[in-house]
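Thread: Newbie trying to understand structure tokens

Hi all, I'm a second-year student working on a class project, and my supervisor (Dr. K.) asked me to get a predicted structure for one chain before our next meeting. I've only ever worked with sequences, so writing a 3D structure as a token string is new to me. If someone could post the tokens and maybe explain what I'm looking at, I'd be very grateful. Here's the chain:
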Amino acid sequence: MQRYILIFFITVLMLPLQAQEQLSENARISILTCSPWAEEIYARFGHTAVRVKDDSLGINIVFNYGHFDMSKPNFMLNFTRGHTDYYVGAEFFESFIYRYALQGVEVVEQVLNLTQEETQNLFNAMYINTLPENREYRYNFFFDNCVTRPRDLIEKYIQGTIQYPADKKVQTFRDLLHECTSPYPWFRFGIDLVIGSDADKPITLREKMFLPVYFQNALEETTVTRNGIISPILKETNIILYVENKEDNRSERSLFSPIVIAFAILFLSIAISLMQRRKANERLLKIFDTILFFVAGICGLIVFFLMFFSVHPATNPNWNIVWINPLMLIFAFLFWVKPLRSIIYCYHFINFAVLTLFLLLWWFIPQQLPLATIPFSMCLWLRSGTNFFLRRKQQK
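---
Reply by user tm_fold:
Sure, no problem. This is what the structure looks like when written as tokens:
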């Protein structure tokens, strides 16, 4: 969950020698959990990396599964389609910590309780991951990311049975995303628009571990059974970088939240509709409708694209497509074509009917929709309804 492309050539050159050597009995592997950072969107969910430390051999490196290269051709298009390739890199621990210290991010280290053989096998596996032919993997936000990769390796190379703690709370993917994005209302609103009803299904504790903090908390109560002996999976937990007021850095204090803007546009739509009943300037009315339906159409185009042309999880089905859809983008320009008035008339009727059902059945839709969708959709409902009924009145 970070974009820094850090390839430390000295570290890479040292790794083949380190992989061939047997780690000492003092070697230890730990999970590093970095708290969210508000300055970058991708960093607002936190980050996880793996540290390997062996003082006897002078090894102190971090394996990081969160690298991606924004300079690749068509990066944003591939990211939208879910075709983003992340890669694992190795860097010196000091440089890793220095970067997060500059960002003011808290870093917690959890030392794993591994046997020497497990430590060696896990280290060798991560080294193999860094080789050029192995380092890239197809990123998936919920199921294959910088947290799930280390978790899966730990599960694979621990020679015993891992028992995660009981899941104490029923939650969904959307619930967890809301926890991470609650200080950022527009970011949260955008996520609620693009993820669909599949994100509202209850998930297991292991599925919740796509977020660093949930993996970190689960490890505190996780046990390993080896040859009938139960032991905690962690030896110790240390705070390497401490941030006293880390929550203050994550807040987005603004009066212009989605719900406030939605009601402001709704009141403006009401005013425009009242002006239209009094035969106000037709050009002004068309400009307002064009902007309103154009913006809704752009949002609908994004939702449509993610539903049918991307492999991102939980984007299809998405009930937001009912009140925002690509057709609005087309009709935003057709409003100015006079010969198509009859078609525009039919469109407003259909849109008004669909949005009426959408608003009446809002509470019964099998998807958790953001509350701001009500006033936003009412703007479109009101404008289509006003245009339809006034046009019908003129015809009569």
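A couple of things are worth pointing out once you decode it. DSSP finds 14 helices and ten strands in the chain. The two ends are 60 Å apart (CA to CA). Feel free to ask follow-ups in this thread.
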